[in-house]
Amino acid sequence: MAANSDEMIWQVINHQFCSYKSTLTKSKGANKDKRQFCKHPYSTTGVCNRSSCPLANSKYATVREENGRMHLYIKTAERAHSPKNLWEKIYLSRNYGRALEQLDEHLAYFPKAQVHRNKQRLTKIHQYLLRMRKLKLREVNGTKAKMTRVHRKVEQREERREKKALVAAKIESTIEKELVERLAKGTYGDIYNFPEVPYQKALESLKETEEEEESEEELETEDEESDAEEGMVEYVEDLDDEEDEELEDMQMNAWDESEEEESGSEEESDSEEESEGDSSASDDSGSSADDSDGEVGKKRKKKPSGKPAKKKKPAAKPKKGPRIEIEYEEENEGMMEQEAAAGGAGLAW
Known about the structure:
Blueprint: H1 2-15, E1 21-25, E2 34-38, E3 60-66, E4 69-75, E5 87-91, H2 96-106, H3 112-141, H4 152-169, H5 171-185, H6 196-230, H7 239-290, E6 311-313, E7 326-328, H8 333-348
Antiparallel strand pairs: 1-2, 3-4, 4-5, 6-7
């Protein structure tokens, strides 16, 4: 019967009219979102829906604060006939843990969702009561906190100005200069607790300056050496005479070798001609004895005309200098003696 009456009450409240209902719209236009809230003093969430409505639920519980004390209000169907005694009022302890135990004890047979909502409400109320007591104590002791307005636009403007001032001040560059000076003076010895980024930059700048100084010193020393060498005088041998002598020596060596080769070849040819002359002389003597009608004048060999032909030897090509051609003339004495002997034998016959 109670469930039927609760459903009937919710249909009326939801679809017709409720004096505690308030509607708010989040946006305007066709896509506006409407939300409905409940202004009933015994509502646990403040939202207008079936489970949170204190009028459409015959079994309901909520936590309220009155004059700095927390109370648990419970509504049951047994007292629905008497609106005067409809809500049961139970005082809750100021101790948070003890108050939670009281909620579990009195709401043992209520839905778990409703019990959870009441515990959340108890927590919020307990927190703002603590803040109220602290403020009151400060007011009594004469150290009341002064409530001031928060100027958000002013704070944003000040933040922007601070950032611009930091950029204009160039704090990092000033820190680097100060670090370089302290490193040069050795103020802190071997222990450095500087910020990492500017410290590394300072070390790099020191290394670069040292390298530049070293390169400048090397250039200065090289310039001094070159200046000293400019004033010195040295005497050097002439290279052209040496080259000419070397070329002449090479040409003479090449000519000697070619002469030796030609003399060896001529000696071999002379020995072959001598052997041929001996054999021809023996043949001539045998034929003259046998022939009675020997012809003395015909057996004479023709003498070689004068001197042998001239032979031209190619000169070794020198690497440098003018081209030189040399001619050689030689007489073969062995050949001449053989021809003379052959001629005398012929005449004797």
